[in-house]
Design goal:
about 500 residues, 7-stranded antiparallel beta sheet, elongated, alpha+beta, about 35% helix, 25 strands
């Protein structure tokens, strides 16, 4: 790597050039002892110092500039009462190599990027001191590398490997349960897209699934319930990566600029007159979003423990939330109750030593098998999946001590008879179980008393459980397995509509 930076420092008042020359020579001497870098050229006119810094891989030129500014300010201030009033970087050229050639052009904010073969030339112009201090430059280099690597994984989807499959079950029908529930009046399409109104019959089934999950999976393993907010501020998603990973799927939350009725008077008047929403006036009265609707409950659970040290005697820590409703903008991908914008979800989160989580995963699998085999009587399978971004990062295995198939996700998939035969139709992923390594505990600075700490989660989507159960077992309770009928033997009468 090679860094070449041209900057301008504004001194609080003029100073003798000979004094400055000695300070630069001293700084260069110390610099060359520690790294292959130097202030190569400089020029002083009145109180304006122009300089050029070249460095290699060991130290970034912008770090050297900031260090030089601090040293110079300290020495000149003490001896001559001269300070640094500002730093401007008018040209910053960075050259580095890639592991492989990009398949198409790369564009990132703040810089011009030119690539020939595997060699990158990235140029920044008119960059502020704050920009340098916030370490944007290193992130930009990493972003270019990530974008090139992602080009080789686009369209490849996930790695998928079957690890277990139940015996085949005879379905009682082959109809789409959503369509049938709509015909019977158990469901109503929600007031906004991708949402549902569950009438008493559908609500009873959904709540039965919730009780089964808690009483048959979570409580036997010792999970404790927590209650969290539906609204998640951006700073949490910045730590978990959700804001950079799926910004197009988030429902954003705006706060009013003011509660003052006078500020809203024109909006109210327009609503009363037009009986419509005056969007321009509404926009004027709203702040920019600083938060979003819950995407998954685990980020807020991690946030609640940020900066804490967990007692070893309390590990693994087993928590779950069922209060926050998840919102995900699915656009054109919505279908029935199994793919929606708003869904009801239980999120178990577990934090502990690696060996504890590996053991817990086996116990969770046994509890899920108990539910899916003996209570819901499903035809289903388990597959080891590693998304392309984890493959790219080398997360398909842990380097030391734990072997392969540790960090990653197990998907639980069920056959939907109405989609076609078992072999050619797409099965529905209705449950997952993940061990995530130290990604999130590090992001929130959660520590153990001693040793390594990992975490994981296993989101339980109640609509998905309901969808696969009804797709295989139908809507008639007489056809439901005895295990499930212990939780719901009879449906409520529902709403009588003329």
């Amino acid at each position: 790597m090679r860094f070449h930076l041209k900057a301008r420092l504004k001194l609080s008042r003029p100073i003798d050039k000979a004094i400055l020359s000695k300070e630069i020579d001293d700084f260069n001497h110390q610099l060359m002892e520690r790294s292959e870098a130097s202030i190569e050229e400089w020029d002083l006119k009145e109180n304006i110092l122009d300089l050029s810094i070249v460095s290699g891989t060991r130290r970034r030129a912008h770090d050297i500039l900031l260090n030089f500014s601090n040293v110079l300010s300290r020495k000149l201030g003490k001896a001559y009462k001269v300070g640094i009033r500002g730093i401007d970087v008018y040209l910053y050229e960075i050259r580095f190599s890639l592991d492989r050639e990009p398949l198409h052009d790369i564009v990132i904010p703040f810089a011009d990027v030119q690539i020939e073969g595997k060699e990158v030339r990235m140029v920044l112009r008119d960059t502020s001191e704050e920009f340098l201090r916030k370490n944007y430059v290193d992130r930009m280099i990493r972003l270019v590398r990530e974008k090139v690597e992602s080009q080789y994984y686009e369209g490849k989807g996930e790695f998928w490997k079957l690890i277990w499959r139940s015996e085949e079950k005879d379905p009682v029908w082959n109809r789409d349960p959503t369509e049938e529930m709509l015909k019977r009046g158990w469901l109503v399409q929600g007031p906004t897209k991708g949402k549902w109104f569950y009438r008493p019959q559908a609500a009873a089934i959904l709540r039965a699934m919730e009780r089964i999950a808690i009483e048959e999976v979570l409580k036997p393993l010792g999970f404790q319930e927590v209650i969290e907010s539906h609204i998640v501020p951006f700073d949490i998603w910045l730590k978990t990566g959700h804001l950079e990973g799926m910004p197009g799927e988030i429902y954003y939350v705006c706060e009013p600029r003011s509660r003052d009725v006078k500020e809203w008077e024109r909006f109210i008047d327009l609503v009363k007159i037009t009986r419509e929403v005056p969007e321009d006036e509404l926009r004027r009265n709203l702040s920019l979003p600083r938060a979003g609707i819950c995407y998954a409950q685990c980020p807020v659970i991690y946030w609640s423990l940020k900066g804490r040290t967990l007692a070893d005697e309390g590990l693994p820590l087993l928590l779950f939330d069922r209060s926050a409703i998840s919102g995900r903008y699915e656009s054109g991908g919505r279908h029935g109750i199994e793919r929606v914008d708003e869904f009801h979800r239980i999120e178990p989160v577990y934090i502990g030593k690696p060996e504890q989580l590996i053991e817990l995963r086996e116990r969770l699998i046994e509890r899920y098998k108990h539910v899916f085999n003996e209570i819901l009587d499903l035809e289903w399978r388990m597959a080891w999946v590693t998304p392309w971004y984890l493959q790219q990062a080398g997360k398909t295995k842990i380097e030391e001590g734990y072997g392969e198939g540790v960090i990653g996700t197990i998907d639980f998939e069920a056959w939907l008879p109405y989609r076609g035969d078992r072999e050619s139709s797409k099965w529905l992923e209705f449950q997952n179980l993940s061990i995530l390594g130290d990604k999130y505990v590090k992001a929130f600075n959660i520590k153990a008393q001693k040793g390594e700490l990992w975490s994981g989660c296993s989101g339980i989507g109640l609509e998905r459980w309901m969808a696969v159960f009804l797709a295989q077992k139908g809507l008639d309770p007489e056809n439901w397995p005895k295990g499930f009928r212990r939780y719901l033997d009879k449906l409520p009468e529902g709403i009588k509509i003329l």
